[in-house]
Amino acid sequence: MKCPYCGYLKDKVLDSREREDGMTIRRRRMCLKCKRRFTTYEEIELKPLIVVKKDGRREKFNRDKLRIGIQKACEKRPISTDKINEIVENIEKELRQKYENEVKSKEIGKHVIKELKKLDKVAYIRFASVYQEFENIEQFLKEIEKIGGKNV
Amino acid sequence: MKCPYCGYLKDKVLDSREREDGMTIRRRRMCLKCKRRFTTYEEIELKPLIVVKKDGRREKFNRDKLRIGIQKACEKRPISTDKINEIVENIEKELRQKYENEVKSKEIGKHVIKELKKLDKVAYIRFASVYQEFENIEQFLKEIEKIGGKNV
DNA sequence: TTCTAAAATACAATATATTGTTTTTTGAAG
DNA sequence: CTTCAAAAAACAATATATTGTATTTTAGAA
What we know:
- The structure is a homodimer.
- The first copy, chain A, is of the alpha+beta class.
- Chain A folds into two domains: about 1-45; about 50-145.
- The first copy, chain A, has five helices and six strands, in the order E-E-E-E-E-H-H-E-H-H-H.
- The longest helix of chain A is centred in the middle third of the chain and has 18 residues, at about 80-100.
- Chain A is elongated.
- Strand 3 of chain A pairs antiparallel with strand 3 (about 35-45) of chain B.
- The first copy, chain A, binds a DNA duplex through strand 1.
């Protein structure tokens, strides 16, 4: 850390205490050049995940919206609510790990596709048809071919 | 550090890098329970800036409060989180330069107004309506005239 | 001045972070 | 589909931070 008094770049920690709530670590440091002391705080990055939509507008990530999209794709399929929640949780986890601040809605789509492909081919095709904006039957067929034809 | 995902209190540091300018240390941590990863930042404590509110009460300047006010004004506007953070940072810097110890909350409002005016007219009007306590539609219209009418 | 609570300091035994380098993964572009 | 550059992860050798307890100083109130 750069000493706020003399600007020297090396220092050492004299004391370090975590707050009870685990939200902050306070450190007392000493500049190795001028010996003066200063305090630092370490905090968890607290940013909401922002979703950037196709038209460029931004909004806060909303777990429920994600769930609804997946639920629609799974309608009448033998997939439990728990399973869907698990997927939602996984996707949110991955997104938060992967993107610091912002994620394009398209990226979210990719993650959903990836999960549904593993889970249920019908749900997968339904979701892809919305997400990739299928405009004719051929596109459906092409996609079905890709995952191994009608015998799935 | 308390895991922001599962709340567990123990974690370990996976990576730690100091920024070139020596102002920040970024750490990548992993929760020892859920294994998820998160980022923390350590920064030097600044001398607290005191905000004097309308009723005369004083409190420490709080960057997050400022950010929230601006974020509200920018909701659903095409403005990135990065841009908002940049503005918050600039305003804080200016305030600390301009005012030694204390600053009236009204002064902070003026700074925000100034920045939003440059950035986004809708956000600007929203913020002004709260800050200047608009009480009727006429005041909105008057303000909109001032910035160039409805063709903005 | 005296009292009190909070902040700062000190100390010592133990555990963990740091940092340069390499490898892998990722997202965007061709 | 392939390629490229950037970000993240992995690794390993070394140095430094953490944490419990005790003591001292400071700032504000009485």
